[in-house]
Amino acid sequence: MSLSTYAQEIKFEKGSKTCILIFHGLADTPFEMRELGESLFSLADVYIPLLPRHGIDAEYLALITREEIDNWALDLVSEIKDKYERVIIVGHSCGAGLTLLSTIKTAIPAAIVLSSVGGIVTRKLKFFVWVVKKFKLKFLRYSYKKERKIKVWPEEYIQWREKNFRKAPVNLFISAISIWPKIAKDIGKISIPIMVVNGTKDIISPVEAVDILMQKVSSRKKKGILVKGARHSIFASELRYEVIEHIKLFISEVLEGNTKEKKEILVIG
Fold first, then answer.
1. When comparing pLDDT for 179 and 32, which is higher?
2. Which of 14, 21, 11 is nearest to 81 (CA)?
3. Would the pTM count as exceeding 0.90?
């Protein structure tokens, strides 16, 4: 098995003392976070790794376990801290969960940005879990019609995804929902600057999650962004550039030392 050129890790380095680590989502690749990484490179070094067992196909990805991906993330964050004075983590979806875990377990990140993150198990999610277990589903089908329509990715990349990731495994997603209550108990330990970004039409990560997370953390500086009309794939939406600018502004404020107490939730779009 070999990785696609689209699935390679991405590094932007210029000798900065700060590293911005970006975790992509489940069944995604570093390529999908490249635009964000390119924008943030003006602020610091950027590293977008490939999550374990990603970049091959859906069947290989389905072999992943919660323990494997969690341990990988914790080891990686510690390894990066050995090389940099400061680490800031941006995590999308599954990557947001890894960001929360790394923050709680290691206390290494100086600031975090979470996009399409959970925070509440809605009735829709409970029903989804019931359906998966009832019918013993292992994969869910996925269509790339919207991404093709708004031309968010090159056609070659969409064709690669259609061939290898027309479906996505549900095992890791289900485990994330099941362990969320345990993670939620420790969220109050987070006191670093935090930004949370969710789409208003995301049934996986509801808009309520933004306010819930911001209430639970102990952070003085916290900012929420609600992206109007966006679904789960925020970085593949029409408003992705506006989202990226908000993330860049937040991180630049942290790097400049602007961490005074402030809580705000903005709606864009």
1. 32
2. 21
3. yes
